[in-house]
Amino acid sequence: MDGPAPWPRPDPRPHVPVWTTPGPTAPAFRPRAEDHAAAGTSTRLEILTVVTLLGATAVLYLWNLGASGWANAYYSAAALAGAQDWIAWLFGSFDAGNALTVDKTPASLWVMALSVRLFGLSSWSVLVPQASMGVASVGVLYATVRRAGGPLAGLVAGATLALTPVAALMFRFNNPDALLVLLLVCGANATVRSVEAGSVRWLVLAGVAVGFAFLAKMLQAFLVIPAFTAVVLIASPVAFTSRIRQVVAAAIAVIVSGGWYIALVQLWPADARPFIGGSQTNSIVELLFGYNGFGRITGDEVGRIGGGGGPFGDGAGLFRLFSGEVATEIAWLLPAALAAGVGLLWLQRRAPRTDALRAQAILWLGWLVVTGLVFSLMEGIFHEYYTVALAPPIGALIGLGVAAAWRHRANRGQSARPHLLVRPPTVRVAGQFHARREHGLRQGVPLRILMLDFPYGAR
């Protein structure tokens, strides 16, 4: 057939196609199937590593668990009441006589009360469910981060979550935060799967997870929604109109999975149920938007004696997370996690819109920044242990950063600056500041983390 040859036109130079770009390039980082097992496939070494991680986490969280006694006696009493009476179980009553509920929605109490009903009342029956949630959180975080960063990233992320001091504390305690963290990590996993496949089903499941997290600790669960929404709108492979419809479907799932309980309590005759603790008018809606809602932001917490944040609301400001006990519980890796997130976004700046690594960086960095800012600036009641909700995104970003730095270690001479993902100068500065503040040292002692040095020491 006459006429020009169809594209691509053969190049006269041997073995060099015309679409080859001469000169070195810095391709976007993507975990390669030949380097680690493809998604859904695991090597024997990886299986052994995961079993070791989860086993070590279980030992850490279960060892001498009974030493915590009843932990938070307030919630232990409610768990006992729920084990004795089904109405008390449904409403989260503080007592089996159903006079007053606790000041939270009762999802975490449902789990504890069922455990007490099955195994009898003991510190173990109250606390083992929380420890189990901690192990599950580590496992789900590993599986989520592995999808974009490979087994090394998942291992570092899971180990970081397991060893974060506030996590090691709260997964051995019976506050609602253990269930909250587990459900939010499950929501992140479902969101990542939705973005990878363009699946509305997975995004609806993410909405259900967030809705039930709301039943554990009310509006705090919604702090991850901006990050989940952003990653879907930016990185999902479907058309933009389809992405909007998926987000709407997920929002409906959140409302239904969390709102049914609010509707149940509101419609139940007030004289046939316990008084809603934390409210002034026996209204769960007031509790939702007042004492456990916007009152935590403004400090005007209706239902709290004396109003304002009191001794638990001091220190509001941008540097709250780097001061006092909060710094030792969570902030030791916060600067490195932020630097890793920004570094990953820079590293993937030329990647396709649907790039899996950049999508996870957006998700985890968004979760960390939004939740961290709310915790820093809220003027109402704030406890240090709230920051356990920051442990999963910190672990994920550290894991992804370590894996990316390890893969790019051979290219440092060509493009060194973007690869400084996990040992920025801010980590050293933060270590010096902490040493001066907490130990009164004349000279700051750089607090180095062996894991953060690892990618740079390897060759």
Task: Compute the CA-based radius of gyration.
Answer: 24 Å
Order of helices and strands: HHHHHHHHHHHHHHHHH
- Proportion in helices: 55-70%
Beta-strand residue percentage? under 5%
Tally of structural domains: 1
Largest sheet data: none
Q: How does the helix and strand content classify structurally?
A: mainly alpha
Uncertain runs are 1-40, 304-311, 413-459
Average pLDDT works out at 81
Number of helical elements: 17
Layout of SSEs?
Blueprint: H1 44-62, H2 73-84, H3 86-91, H4 107-119, H5 123-163, H6 165-170, H7 177-197, H8 200-217, H9 225-235, H10 240-267, H11 284-298, H12 324-331, H13 334-347, H14 356-377, H15 391-407, H16 425-439, H17 450-457
Short description:
The chain is mainly alpha-helical and 459 residues long. It has helices at residues 44-62, 73-84, 86-91, 107-119, 123-163, 165-170, 177-197, 200-217, 225-235, 240-267, 284-298, 324-331, 334-347, 356-377, 391-407, 425-439, 450-457. It is built from 17 helices and no strands.
Protein architecture, described:
- With 459 residues, the chain is an all-alpha fold.
- It has one domain (45-457).
- It contains 17 helices and no strands.
- The chain has helices spanning 44-62, 73-84, 86-91, 107-119, 123-163, 165-170, 177-197, 200-217, 225-235, 240-267, 284-298, 324-331, 334-347, 356-377, 391-407, 425-439, 450-457.
